[in-house]
């Protein structure tokens, strides 16, 4: 039988790795996932913000509120 992978396990496996986070408002963040909690609030280090496929800047630390997250993907 296939093993079931839970969402928080995926986040745990992505810690200290590059991820792409798509959020409401047509924005994306690419950075290193350094933390998360049970609400899927995320902390990204060295994150670059994209809007309409254009870079909007780089930030040393970004906190993304979990209820704004549409999806998270390895980058």
Labels describing this entry:
single chain; 75 residues; mainly beta; SH3 type barrels; 1 helix; 5 strands
Domains (count): 1
The CATH class is: Mainly Beta
Instruction: State mean pLDDT (0 to 100 scale).
Output: 93
Radius of gyration based on Cα positions: 12 Å
Number of helices: 1
Number of strands: 5
Which fold name corresponds to the CATH topology? SH3 type barrels
Instruction: Say what oligomer this is.
Output: single chain
Q: Helix/strand/pairing class, anyone?
A: mainly beta
Shape: globular
Q: What is the correct CATH architecture?
A: Roll
Q: In what range is the share of β-strand residues?
A: over 45%
Helix and strand element order? HEEEEE
Helical fraction equals: 10-25%
Uncertain segments: none
How far do the termini sit from each other?
Answer: 29 Å
Largest sheet: 5 strands, antiparallel
- Spatial strand sequence of the major β-sheet: 4-3-2-1-5
Kindly summarize this structure in a few lines:
The chain has 75 residues and is mainly β.
